[in-house]
Amino acid sequence: MMEKIVSLCKRRGFVYPASEIYGGINGFWDYGPLGVLLKNNIRNAWWRAMVECPPIGPDGHPIEMVGLDSSIIQHPRTWEASGHVGGFADPMSTCRQCKKLFRSDHVADMLREAEWVKSLAEGLGLDESGAGAVDIGRLRQWADRKAKKVAPGLALVRAFVPTLAAIEAALAGTPSPGLTPLLALVAAAPPPAAPCPACGGDLTEPRAFNLMFESHAGAIQDDANKVYLRPETAQGIFLNYKNVLDTSRVKVPFGVAQIGKSFRNEVTPRNFIFRSREFEQMEMEWFCHPDEARTWYEFWKHERMRWWLSLGVSSENLRFREHDPDELSHYSKMTVDIEYRYPFTAPDFGELEGIAHRGSFDLTQHQTHSGQKLDYFDQELQLKLKAEGRPDDEIKAKSRYIPNVIEPASGLTRAVLLLLCEGYAEDASRASPVYLRFDAKMAPIKCGIFPLVNKDGLPEIAEKLYLELRGRHACEYDAKQSIGKRYARMDEIGTPFCVTIDGQTREDQTVTLRERDTAAQERVAIDRIPALLAERLG
Length: 538
Ligand code: GAP
Fold this sequence. Notes:
alpha+beta
């Protein structure tokens, strides 16, 4: 299914491989005319839900939230304080034969999808999981005919005679070893070592690989001028926490929200735009009293799930997953992911957004590294405690503190993928056998406006309607091709409504209003269209 979605995205102008005319560049994508509209719709919905119209807090009053747009390049010491220079690394292995790099913890998944592993299973007549008895004659034939092409790095190809003899001996006791032990045998690499997903060669031991892209600010390219492209938008918010407090009217608890590009030199960018090297994040840092952090963590966990559901994502495809203590990031006291059932993880789920309780880690780190005081004096709390008659030392200890942070962090580009996967539908009986069932709010184009034929005064009526509607909704006027083809194209790009002007329109001022999901058509007065669309698009 992913291949079909990627192909639809390319064909209809949602997402293109970056630098395609030069053969592409791994891990980078360009968003085409429809992709940018879809991305903007998600961005605007998030901004509205977070900054312009933030949720009502547990006390029944609207919470305080402001926006920020910080620089992608910050002082390099930012990343020392945040822990990214020392710790933002993935384990990486290199293939000794084809020299390709892999994220060590992705190798097992990649092997399951590897072309040569599929070819091996097919050649031996095994099922997808690798179950079944291995016939040594078929294995010899596969090594001779196929493996040289699809897995030239495999020990069975490079050292055929001794490897085959070792396999024969091993199979004598266990004729149906299963996939992972079989791969170990053909690669002559006993687990936990695994063969290269690309060529079957030997992988090196995992080495830590820092994911930050480096550059230099200024003309001299030395270490003193080294800078980093931000790997998360969050740190820009921590650096500006004091500025925001001093220049706006917010008081703790409050949030600062930001949407912007982030960069990670991912070892194995994968699964289309799911894991890319340049991507956009939607992050919010919620600054609160340490005693209230748990309450706000629960609040944001549920608010964020509610928001994803409001985009029309089915609740069956979303779930929470609390992180085990051993998988928590260095800054996190507790984290829950909102996960989605992507086609490439199904029936399992993959990360969409993380909600982390970061404690006071970030502000404490930046306070220590910058020497600037980042604590907060909570006057309201001081007055409250005084009124309650609390002892002076308790009042002092409680009313000056470094706020804790709850952080909902999600990927905007990953959300584009989510809506494409969620909307993708197949129906062989339709003019377009695949179509996108976007929620109307998210659809890049809300309404297609078509004169049935490009003559007889119909284009003039259609254009008048288009000019009236385009200020309110993203509309597209199209007078080319047959009406069936125009409907099919609109279905494929997920347009919820189409309006067709035909000969009858000139007689009785009615038009055909067509709805995408049901393909139902109704005849309505042309002057009712603006109100009908306003009502149905919400
Ligand atoms: N500030 C915390 C932070 O950055 P993260 O879990 O590393 O946390 C947050 O990233 C979100 O950003 C992820 O849930 C995911 O949606 C998105 N994201 C992270 N790496 C990505 C990548 N390489 N490509 C696309 N999206 C990515």
